[in-house]
Amino acid sequence: MELDRAGVLVKQAEAALDARNGGVIWEYHPNIDTDSTPLCCGVVNRGVAVGDGKVFVGQVDGRLVALDQKTGKKLWEAQVGDPSKGFSETMAPLFFDGLVYIGMSGAEYETRGYVTAYKSADGSQVWRWYTIPAPGEPGSETWPKGDAYLHGGGSMWMTPSLDPRLGYLYLAVGNPGPDLDGGVRQGDNLYTESLVALNAKTGKHVWHFQEIHHDIWDYDAVSPIVLFDGVVNGKQARGLAEAGKTGWSYLLDRATGRPLIPISEKAVPQDRRQNTARTQPHPQGDSFVPQCPTNPVAKYSQGCIFTPFEETPILIAPGANGGNEWSPIAFSPQTQYVYIPGLVQPQVFTYNPSEIKEGSLKLGSGFVSPPGQGTSGTFTAIDTRTNKIAWQKQMTYMMIGGTMATAGGLVFTGEGDGNFRAFDARTGTDLWKFQTGAGANAAPMTYDVGGDQYVAIASGGNFQLDYPRGDTLWVFSLKGARAEAAAPPAPSTRTEQPPLGPQATTDKVTIVNFKFIPDNIVVKAGTSITVTNQGAFPHTWSDLNGAWDSGVLQTGQSKTITFSQPGTYQFYCKPHPWMVGQLTVVG
User: Fold this and answer.
1) What's the CATH fold of domain 508-586?
2) Where are the domains of the chain?
């Protein structure tokens, strides 16, 4: 499901298809009122789990639902989190040995994250582990005293992984709250931005490794953890890999949490107001995206990874999207490589502390891709024996979706221009592509029916990066003969100033359907303008260079600002930075 840029809402739905021919067996429509559900980063659903004769679905209204695998009939549901307080479900659950595991999204709404295990038979809760420790618990010393932990964030965006031999469940925990405001949460802020191993049966903490201490850049761990068996330093290794927004891959021993390849703590630039950590982990090896701005927009100051920021805008790389953003990575036992899609998207960061309130969107700062900034992508094979690049393809478009490696020596991935592509897994040689008609921005999968292998990918585009939308599931086999789709309009490789509407003189601005109305305003100096949010989601009305900021406006809230200084100003919404406009103040 997706909310497109024109404001057309497609509700969440699940369907069972015949894997051989695509015939619809059943459909499930929960009819969720997504208009009144607070969500960060798009109305999405990243899949289902199947087991025990059931299909398990995480719904954006914070529910976990079990459906009959054969009929689609709802068997039970559990309320995992309260959507009125900012909790939501966008991840796919995980089923194993009679239990269903599911985390929570909502760190942007000043919540306290957790992962929960439910009995697959009836939906009763077995255990719950909080990603933010309470006072007195291990890790609580990394938070300020008081109730900061109750608003500490720690979303789980993606499905956990599980090792049946060890009995460990592996979590990638996301950003702290407030997201980019470190001034109110002194300390390293465990277990945010961490890879965590829990006992799968009891939920007890086994080990953790924090990728970013006291994150203020939204470098959250959002890519799913991949488990692999390989050879490191001449010894057999039971490893795990996670591709970070930082641009590094993190390779750990999944039994102990110790790095397989050294990760060193190195000093980083400091900012007292942001309470920055003195050091940050730096994995030995290569980054899969640049860690300083490339082709920067000239008018901004620039910073490399871990550069702190205050009110003065700074262009930093990687941006808040990474790195790797949500996209699953793949491992090939044949090559010992992991395959990582990357985004090259420097962004401007600014500091904006404000009041904390559970259930209200609070980023604590803003980030935006400035008009004129070039973007691109990388597709990289990282050798798990060295954490160095084995091969890398420079891609035209920012890469988001996922990868898949096969025993046939291929690695598949999709692009925002609709092309679904296959490469030689060992050399990176481009072998095949197919035009799907919309952004191929999903993780590919493969399966076998009756001795025939199939490869599938959903072609639906991407809301966040504005890749062409679609609604198609493509399935391929060696017997397939279906023609390619017509290519969609090519996505932009440069952040563009969207076309503005006609100039309007007004003292009122309305926010609705992810748009400012009007978005091209001309007023005389001394005019006061009242902005009102009539949309379903929280928004801000903010100057790109920090001249003014409305603060977060919930649905129905207004803010009045007086403009005395003549000039031309570019404004945007901090949580949804593609929303932009222009204000001209004349003397």
Assistant:
1) Immunoglobulin-like (2.60.40)
2) 508-586
pLDDT one-digit tens code per residue, 364-389? 567 788 888 899 999 999 999 999 99
Query: Which amino acid type is present at position 380?
Result: T
Sort residue 326 into left (φ over 0), alpha (ψ -120 to 50) or beta. Answer: left
Instruction: Give yes or no for a contact between 190 and 170, defined as CB atoms under 8 angstroms apart.
Output: no
Q: Give the length of the chain.
A: 587
What is the rounded CA–CA span in Å between residue 455 and residue 451?
13
- C-alpha dihedral, 134 to 136 to 142 to 146, nearest 10°: 60
- Give the 3-state secondary structure of residue 177: coil
Which of 218, 220, 466, 549 is an active site residue? 218
Note if 452 is an active site residue: no
DSSP letters along 115-164, please? Answer: EEEEETTT--EEEEEESSPPTTSTTGGGS-SSSGGGG-B----S--EEET
Instruction: Report the candidate in 549, 203, 193 with the shortest Cα–Cα distance to residue 365.
Output: 549
Task: Please give the biggest Cα pair distance in the chain.
Answer: 76
Candidates 10, 107, 101; CA nearest to 64 is: 101
Q: Which residues, including other chains, have CB under 8 Å from residue 451's CB and lie 6 or more apart?
A: none
419 pLDDT more than 60: yes
